[in-house]
Design brief:
Layout (H helix, E strand, L loop, with lengths): L1 E2 L4 E2 L19 H9 L4 H7 L5 H8 L5 H4 L10 H20 L1
Antiparallel strand pairs: 1-2
């Protein structure tokens, strides 16, 4: 994260290290995106970054940015019991629809 005076600019949350071999990959994400936007193929971009192991290549190729979706939820928000029950009723209706269809 980079913090400004009153604004918070969020960067993607990419794992710092490869889950399998432990190689540092977190610093390569922005370069990877830049290379892809410069008409490099995924293979060329990963080769240019020096990611030769398929485990490390997997880490960048399959990463999904969920931070924007997660930021829409306020974990500190309190809801009333009535609102909680309404949300549960909606979820039950949706579950029933999906089971019928």
């Amino acid at each position: 994260r980079h913090f400004a005076a009153s604004t918070c600019i969020l960067k993607m949350i990419i794992p710092v290290r490869c889950f399998t071999c432990g190689k540092v990959i977190g610093n390569k994400w922005d370069l990877y995106l830049d290379l892809l936007s410069s008409d490099y193929s995924e293979r060329e971009a990963l080769d240019t970054l020096g990611l030769n192991r398929y485990c490390c290549r997997r880490m960048l190729m399959t990463h999904v940015d969920l931070i924007e979706k997660l930021l829409t939820y306020n974990t500190l928000e309190k809801i009333t019991k009535k609102e909680f029950e309404e949300i549960g009723a909606i979820a039950d209706r949706e579950r029933q629809k999906s089971n019928l269809g």
